Amino acid sequence: MPDRAALLVIDMQETVLAHCADVPGVIERINGLLGRARRSGAPIVFIQHQDADAPELAAGSPGWQLVAALDRREGDPVVAKEYRDSFAGTELGAVLAATGVRRLVVTGAQSQYCVQTTALSALHHGYDVSLVGDAHTTSPATLPDGDLPAATIVQFVNSCFGTLSHPGRSTEVVPAADVAL
């Protein structure tokens, strides 16, 4: 039986998702995980990025809002963040400490930025991490040689995280259908 887990939903916001791949599918899989977490009593934490220097992500702006299709309910904790790392300068550590969890199930946007950075930081904060390989998304990246498709970036993050090892911690990349909560 896996250790008690919490579900993290990172930056599923209007502006953040504007050019991301497979948004309806990712939302559907996250909503499925939210339902399973609620049924099992697993803690849920939503992370919401804000940036006073970017009007589209200023707290309270339309683009800052979590997407309406997400099954967020009254009472679900929301942690505000200003950095890619959801632990940096936030109350996430305290929120998770109060739950007694040892494993984080990570979902959200943007794969190579906030999702990956938070997953790596979680290891340093003493958590085992399950990255849900089909429940995170990103937008294409513009490189000097051309665009890198979003699906390729998601696959790359999954591949890197899937081979990661960290002293005393376990990591895995798992499809939403196989996540233990």
Helices and strands in order:
Blueprint: E1 5-10, H1 23-40, E2 44-49, E3 78-81, H2 92-97, E4 103-109, H3 111-124, E5 128-137, E6 141-143, E7 146-148, H4 150-162, E8 171-174
Parallel strand pairs: 1-2, 1-4, 2-3, 4-5, 5-8
Antiparallel strand pairs: 6-7
How does this structure look, described?
The protein has 181 residues and is α/β, with parallel strands linked by helices. It is 28% helix and 24% strand. The strands form two sheets. The chain has a six-stranded parallel β-sheet with strand order 3-2-1-4-5-8, sandwiched between helices. The model has no long low-confidence stretch (mean pLDDT 96).
Q: What's the pLDDT, averaged over the residues?
A: 96
Summarize the main sheet.
6 strands, parallel
Number of strands: 8
Euclidean distance between termini CA atoms: 10 Å
Radius of gyration: 15 Å
Low-pLDDT runs of 5+ residues are none
Helix/strand-derived category reads: alpha/beta
The percentage helix is 25-40%
Helix-strand pattern, N to C? Answer: EHEEHEHEEEHE
Quick synopsis:
It is globular, with a radius of gyration of 15 Å.
Keywords, please?
6-stranded parallel sheet, single chain, alpha/beta, 4 helices, about 180 residues, about 30% helix, globular, two-stranded antiparallel sheet
